[in-house]
Each structure stands twice: as C-alpha cells, then as structure tokens.
Amino acid sequence: MKRSAAATKATILAAARERFAADGYERATIRAVAGDAHIDPSMVMRYFGSKERLFAAAAELDLHLPDLSGVRHRSVGRILAVHFVERWETDEALKVLLRTAVTNEAAAARMRTIFASQLAHAIGWIVSDPAEAALRAGLVATQVLGMAFCRYVLQLPPVTAMTPAEVIAWLAPTLQRYVTGSR
Length: 183
Known about the structure:
Strand content: under 5%
Helix content: over 70%
Radius of gyration: 18 Å
Number of strands: 0
Shape: elongated
Number of helices: 10
Distance between the termini: 60 Å
Structural class: mainly alpha
Order of helices and strands: HHHHHHHHHH
C-alpha cells in the first residue's frame, strides 16, 4: 500500500518521537527510526536530511498555551497548572524533548526556546515589562519542567503516585505567585 508524502512524513515523525524517547538522542539512529516506520532509511534522509533535522522536526512543539488575556488574574496559576498537567499526561513529544534535553545540548536549547518564548508571550498581558515577563516565564518553567522531570523521567514514587488533580492542586499556587505575585 502506497502512502502519501504527508502520511509518510507523519509516520516517520511518530517513529522518531518513540525512538528518541526510548533510546535518547545519542543512541537513536536513522536506521532504527526507519525500521520502526517500516520504510527504507533513505526515505528518512529524503524527508529530513539528517538526524539533527529529524530530531528538530520531532521536537517541534507548540505548547498550545491558553489565551490568558481574558482570564482573571487570580485564576492564572490554576489555568496554567491544568494546561501543563494535561499536556504532560498526553503529549509524548513533550516527554521526548524533556528526556533528550537532559543529555543533548541541541534538545536543551530547543526546550529553552520553546518555554521562554511561548510562556513569556502568554503572560505578557499580565506583566507589561518584557524583562519581567521573561523572568516570570522562567520561574514558571522551573516548576512545570521540574514536576515533569520528577514525574515522567525520574519517576519519583511519591510524585508518580499523585493523581493529576493532586499535582494541579500543589502546582497552581506556585505558578500563581510566579505569574502575578511580587518578588
């Protein structure tokens, strides 16, 4: 059965995300990704050109942050906590990027860019000073990335035993303070 170019590319990306998650960036190979996608390795190279570009495409993420502009300030922390917990619970690509960022500088740089730019933009309506928005976005990132690292990478038992609702209840007040509170 012949696949369309879009379907082939999507299949390769899905296989790459799984392979990078399982093996990490360093051990994952084009050949292994191609095997997982049931295609010839030359097809991976045709669509992506290199392992680095394949990883960049597999790690391309939009955090799909909610529009916070119409939200009451006192609700921002909870809305962000719910959003991030739901994303971490369901988005394998986000977990792949986190696992890989621990050992690969390109992945770490990608993670920094994604979180810094998207979070600063999302909370920019609350904090008009761009430097302050960047600082607050960085603080929010410390919490959501730290929680995700402990829950999905280290699999720290007390944290993995928590329900998503419990994670949200603990995370929301800290995010609230970081976004809207004073220093």
